[in-house]
Amino acid sequence: MLEIKKLSVSFAGRPVLQDLDLTVAAGKVHGIIGLNGAGKSTFFNVLSSVVKPENGEIIFNGKPLKYTDIAYLETTNFFYPNLTGREYLNIFPKTNKDFDLIAFEQILQLQLDLLIETYSTGMKKKLALLAMLQQNKPVFVLDEPFNGLDLESNRTLEMIVELLRQKGKTVLISAHILEPLLHTCNQIHLLQNGRFVQTFGEAEFPFIREKLFAQLNQDLQSQLKKAL
Ligand SMILES: Nc1ncnc2c1ncn2[C@@H]1O[C@H](COP(=O)(O)OP(=O)(O)OP(=O)(O)O)[C@@H](O)[C@H]1O
Predict the structure, then answer these.
(1) Is there an atom of ligand 1 within 6 Å of 13 CB?
(2) pLDDT digit string (tens) for 170-192?
(3) Is the ipTM of this complex over 0.85?
(4) Are the C-beta atoms of residues 130 and 112 closer than 8 Å to each other?
(5) What would you measure as the largest C-alpha separation in the chain, in angstroms?
(6) Which atom, in ligand 1's list, is nearest to the CA of 44?
(7) Which protein residue's CA is at the shortest distance from atom 30 of ligand 1?
(8) Residues 6+ apart with CB under 8 A from 130
């Protein structure tokens, strides 16, 4: 069980997360959705100890969550200049004994001996993903992992997430498009006004679009009609 209790974060006095609570099952895949600026990355940054919250606690399987429990794929990764993909991977511990880099080089079509500065956005994303997968962690946090990936890599990532779940990992993923979340998640949680306001289980996935957009569609259509 991953329990997040009364989590609050502000930037320059402006609250972003406010007394946020979320309890989710370990060993499952959880989608996090919310509008731009809702606080998804901030929430992930707190889980990964990149941002310190003003208040709150995070308990994983009965103990405070440690940053070493988490493998974190950030929205935008930092890469040192003049490194090849392989040199970048060597920075990270290889604690996942099952991880087969040669197989992944082929699967993801990644040329690890080229300088990272020659990589496309999607190639950089794949490289950061490999750095994460080579580590044996109980919790995987993926912030917009599908951004920048081609259709085939999107499908590959969906399959990777499913395999992580089968290995008993707890996975949290954010995305701006629902489709990949519907394929990978056991639950989807909606972040709004600094809190989680709604959770959708798999049985509700076929209706999630209608539920999320019912009000928005009406408001937006009338606004757009006036504006265009
Ligand atoms: N380091 C920071 N300093 C100041 N404000 C910040 C900082 N990080 C985030 N914010 C603000 O916190 C709010 C939430 O940002 P966050 O990036 O967490 O949202 P998000 O839901 O991930 O957005 P998006 O969907 O656009 O990626 C935004 O208003 C953002 O401007």
Answers:
(1) no
(2) 999 999 889 999 999 999 999 99
(3) yes
(4) no
(5) 59
(6) 18
(7) 37
(8) 89, 101, 104, 108, 110
User: Is residue 147 a contact partner of residue 117, using CB atoms and an 8 Å limit?
Assistant: no
CA distance 110 to 217: 41
The rounded distance, in Å, linking the Cα atoms of 164 and 97 is 14
* Dist. CA 162–CA 156, nearest whole Å: 10
In the predicted model, is pLDDT for residue 165 greater than 90? Answer: yes
Domains and CATH numbers, the chain: 2-227 (3.40.50.300)
- Checking if the pLDDT of 11 tops 80, the result is yes
Ligand 1: atom nearest CA of 43 is 18
The answer for residues whose C-beta is within 8 angstroms of residue 94's C-beta and 6 or more apart is: 134, 135
pLDDT at 225 over 90: no
89-103 confidence digits (pLDDT tens): 999 999 999 999 999
What are 57's two structure tokens?
């606690």
> Which uninterrupted H or E stretch holds 107?
helix 101-107
Give the per-residue pLDDT at 215: 65
Atom of ligand 1 nearest to the CA of 143: 22
Nearest protein Cα to ligand 1, atom 25: 36
Rounded distance, CA 10 to CA 200, Å? 27
Q: If you measure from the C-alpha of residue 43 to the centroid of ligand 1, how many angstroms do you get, rounded to a whole number?
A: 9
Length of the chain: 228
